[in-house]
Design goal:
This protein is of the alpha+beta class and about 290 residues long. The chain is built from ten helices and four strands. Helix 1 packs parallel to helix 4. It is elongated, with a radius of gyration of 24 Å. The C terminus is likely disordered.
């Protein structure tokens, strides 16, 4: 059964995508391009070609993303590919015709250019991702390559960007390459924040001899759903043969609640073993909805 998309969802996606395109265009034309700054990813390739050969950035970005649109339709779905194609064309039109002002006139601190250029570019790309499209499709390239040669996506993205930064260093000097690295880092961190939001979910696993009290606290006081694994505690070096059955408690909370949970758990059992791991996406169950999305 195909998923049904309601009108509010469609409008929400369009608003996110259009705002993402406008903000990404602002980052490029108002901050990065006037200062000959580069970035990583597919946007970095487009900026690099623009600086090396002085081709129109609007045209370069559209052409560079054509393979990504095709791969997106193959790897994700046709709807994603169409939305991505529309966003890329809209970005190209904005870069060509929208009167973005150069806000960096008179700026002497190029670190600010790198930081705010990366921030607004990441903000735009992240909002586009929340709208269901890829304004910069480096992850699509990584996914396609991963399926072909088996390297992890992180390794592929790192190698892809290493080539960009190496060319930047050879063509424009180490200073430009270092600024490009900083811009890309700021952009990726901003994308993570925009996509995951302040309520990024964290998985928490708790092993304690007082699991019954902890389970009651999580459910009744914090209003969280829990999952219980049956396990054994003990196996210490000095008493390896001694073990006890125990309930291993797993729950999912927002990162803002991690400190509170750890404090409460250790008030119940100072010897409790608690560890966390970041969850990139979570849905269903007893979870709070992301505010505003």
């Amino acid at each position: 059964m195909k998923p049904r998309f309601t009108i509010p969802q469609i409008v929400n996606d369009i608003v996110y995508s259009v705002l993402g395109v406008l903000i990404a265009g602002f980052a490029l034309m108002s901050i990065l391009v006037p200062n000959q700054f580069l970035d990583g990813g597919v946007t970095g390739v487009s900026l690099l070609l623009h600086e090396l050969y002085h081709w129109p950035l609007s045209l370069v970005i559209i052409i560079a993303n054509i393979p990504l649109v095709i791969m997106g339709g193959y790897l994700v779905n046709r709807r994603f590919a169409l939305k991505t194609a529309g966003s890329i064309v809209l970005l190209g039109l904005c870069l060509q015709f929208f009167p973005y002002p150069n806000i960096t006139v008179g700026w002497s601190n190029m670190i600010l250019v790198s930081i705010f250029g990366g921030f607004f570019l990441g903000l735009g790309i992240g909002m586009g991702m929340r709208g269901g499209c890829a304004i910069d499709g480096i992850e699509i390239v990584a996914l396609y390559t991963w399926r072909k040669i088996g390297l992890t996506m992180s390794e592929i993205i790192l190698a892809f960007n290493a080539i960009i930064f190496l060319i930047a260093a050879l063509g424009f000097g180490l200073e430009k390459a270092f600024y490009a690295m900083l811009t890309y880092y700021i952009a990726t961190r901003t994308i993570d924040y925009v996509v995951e939001g302040i309520e990024e979910y964290t998985g928490v696993t708790i092993i304690s001899g007082k699991s019954e009290v902890i389970k009651e606290m999580l459910v009744k006081e914090m209003g969280r759903g829990i999952t219980i694994y049956k396990g054994e505690r003990g196996f210490m070096k000095e008493s390896y043969d001694v073990s006890h059955d125990c309930d291993i408690v797993f729950t999912v909370i927002t990162r803002l609640e991690v400190r509170k949970l750890k404090r409460v758990v250790h008030e119940i059992d100072p010897r409790a073993f608690v560890f966390t791991n970041t969850i990139k996406e979570a849905a269903g169950g007893v979870l709070k909805r992301h505010a505003g999305h």
